[in-house]
Amino acid sequence: MINRWEILLEKGQTYFELENYDKAAETFKKVIAEKPDLVKAMRYLAECNGKLGNKKEAINAYEQIIAFDPNDIETLSKLGSLLLETAQPEKAINIFNKAAALAPENKQLQYDLGLLNTRQNHFEAAERHFIKALAADENYIEALTELARLKVATNDIETGIDYYLRAIEIEPDNAKLHSELGEAYEFNGQYNDSIMEYKKAEYLDPNDPKIHFKIGKDLESKGKLEEALEKYQAVKELDPQNIELYYRCGKLYQRLEQSQAAREEFEKIAKMKPDWLEIRYELANLYGDMGDYELQIKEYEAIAEHDTSSTEVMKNLGASYAANGELDKALQYYDRALDSDPSDYEIPERMYEIVLAGGDPSLCIEVLEALFETRQDDSDLALVLARAFAAQGFMDEANDFYMKILEISPDRNDIKGELRTIYRSKGMVNEEIEAIETLLENDPNNLELLND
Q: Which of 192, 222, 345, 367 has the fewest CB neighbours in a 10 Å radius?
């Protein structure tokens, strides 16, 4: 008599063959409910869950199989892979170690363990497993390659080179091996050997952008800038979205003093990656060097959107507006920079320079007053403050600074005309008369002064 679980098992297998994994999984669960020790059904259930992306359920199924058969190497390997996919690397290593202990000469298991330990930065363990894989098959190219990479990464470059050479003996036409060997030679300072390997790789695979890129970097390191540029431009045709290529081209054009070409490269990067602030700074500096201050301002404003409190960004905007002749805006941005970093002594100096160039001193009177405290003998600064206070109708404050000017430079007759306005506003008749007489000494025929 046929058992019900046998009928269900056959039905589940049919669903599995028809790739109806939902129905198959549901059926195999019923089989296991009736026959809890049926490993075959557990395997099918694990496979179904794997196909459906239900990795947690698949792991549970494989663990049930291992509970019944701890020496099932195939299941251990599958379980290890799933644990790795679900970001459980240490558990995966333990499972793979169990499998490898059961089959120490299984080169694939040893290789997989080597890769897994490499990812976890367990380099000594990784090396041991790769060597075991090679012991099982001395021509195992993948293990040789990973050993070479591991040795170079851990700064045992000469040993890494030896492994690359062994791998190339097995696969002499492998462009990637020649390219990586070239890189190892470069790290080891063997530049002639390096370029020879890059050239071999280029010959074997002329359409690999990474190989051309490495050749370009080698040319650049040797100061062959125009040749490097030519190589990078060729790579861009093969890899048009590689931002580093455009960046390197831009920097090389700058070194060759070709600002317009550099600008075009950086602008392409800004379109591809608008949030990359480094390229925004590059463009801002370049626009400034080229005298295109409006574009420079736009770049710094784009940067400021990401960092609204940066003192340097505010200072850069202030400098850009000043260079563009927008002096009052420049003062406003320098004022914001000073709010962000009150200890930056350069900012008041720069604001004073902008005021002398025609900026509105009323926008920064407090800053200029504080600056005067450190420069008590600066009559020009005192005059700026006197005029600023007078323009706002603060005659007492204006008079104080005019007096300070005369204390610093008693012979400054050029300000007597301005002082008349102060004296008149304060009803200081004698002082106003004295100021007029001083002015008449320089201009005795001035009828307006004589009438006054």
A: 192
Two tokens at 261?
């070409």
How far apart are alpha carbons 201 and 195 in whole angstroms? 10
pLDDT for 137: 93
* Per-residue confidence (pLDDT) for residue 428, from 0 to 100: 52
For 325, residues 6+ apart whose C-beta sits below 8 A from its C-beta are: none
Superfamily in which the 274-374 domain is placed by CATH: Tetratricopeptide repeat domain (1.25.40.10)
Other Cβ atoms closer than 10 A to 269? 22
Length of the chain (residues):
452
Query: Residue 443's closest CA among 402, 411, 418, 413?
Result: 413
pLDDT at 436: 47
Run means of pLDDT, 10 residues per run, the chain, 452 residues: 77 84 86 83 83 86 84 81 80 81 82 86 91 93 95 95 96 95 92 90 89 86 89 88 92 94 95 92 93 94 84 93 94 92 91 92 90 88 83 79 78 64 57 48 46 48
C-alpha dihedral (408, 412, 418, 421), degrees to nearest 10:
70
Q: Where are the domains of the chain?
A: 274-374
Residue 143: closest CA among 159, 161, 164: 164
If you search the block for the tokens 């098959």, which residue do you land on? 137
How would you write the chain as a 3-class SS string? CCCHHHHHHHHHHHHHHCCCHHHHHHHHHHHHHHCCCCHHHHHHHHHHHHHHCCHHHHHHHHHHHHHHCCCCHHHHHHHHHHHHHCCCHHHHHHHHHHHHHHCCCCHHHHHHHHHHHHHCCCHHHHHHHHHHHHHHCCCCHHHHHHHHHHHHHCCCHHHHHHHHHHHHHHCCCCHHHHHHHHHHHHHCCCHHHHHHHHHHHHHHCCCCHHHHHHHHHHHHHCCCHHHHHHHHHHHHHHCCCCHHHHHHHHHHHHHCCCHHHHHHHHHHHHHHCCCCHHHHHHHHHHHHHCCCHHHHHHHHHHHHHHCCCCHHHHHHHHHHHHHCCCHHHHHHHHHHHHHHCCCCCHHHHHHHHHHHCCCCHHHHHHHHHHHHHCCCCCHHHHHHHHHHHHHCCCHHHHHHHHHHHHHHCCCCHHHHHHHHHHHHHHCCHHHHHHHHHHHHHHCCCCHHHHHC
Determine the pLDDT at residue 435: 47
C-alpha 366/C-alpha 371 separation (Å) is 9
Contact indicator for 430, 437 with CB cutoff of 8 Å: no
> Rounded to 5 degrees, what angle do the CA atoms 362, 363, 368 make?
75
Q: Which two tokens stand for residue 182?
A: 């070239």
